[in-house]
Amino acid sequence: MKRVVGLAVFLVALHGTAHAGGPQVRACKFEVKARCASGDVSVTLKDGAVQKLDILIFWCGLPGRPGYTCTVDSTRGEDDTWSEDGGATVIDNATPFNDTRPDRVKVTVGKYVSIDFAEAQSAGRCGAGAELPRAIVIPAQGGACRVWLDKR
Hints:
Strand order of the largest sheet: 5-6-7-8-9-10
Order of helices and strands: HEEEEEEEEEE
Structural class: mainly beta
Shape: globular
Strand content: 35-45%
Number of domains: 1
Number of helices: 1
Largest sheet: 6 strands, antiparallel
Helix content: 10-25%
């Protein structure tokens, strides 16, 4: 019996380590009907560190007109500048619309993944009728994102 228990513990440990170093994707979708905004967000992690951030937000246009989008698509080691600040990953846009102001997104990973756009520029990333939210939180167990939009 001890051998069976020992074998079971070994197999569980082996299974856990086989996936430990691989990438993990935390993602969610959202829809804010009152503001006619929707989108999807994904953060790719490796060993707990952010490797890729991919955000697509769609805003409805006026009746009979196409909508507008906002995109953030950044991968560690490519064009944007990535740094760590107090447990958060900070991604500075390499080509900001207004180069006299900061254009950065802050991603904090814990039970939830929190994406802070307080210092991000919407211009350059969004179409004329769209804007980045103030923040997006990806829940731990999947489901819809929590999104904070600017008040209008």
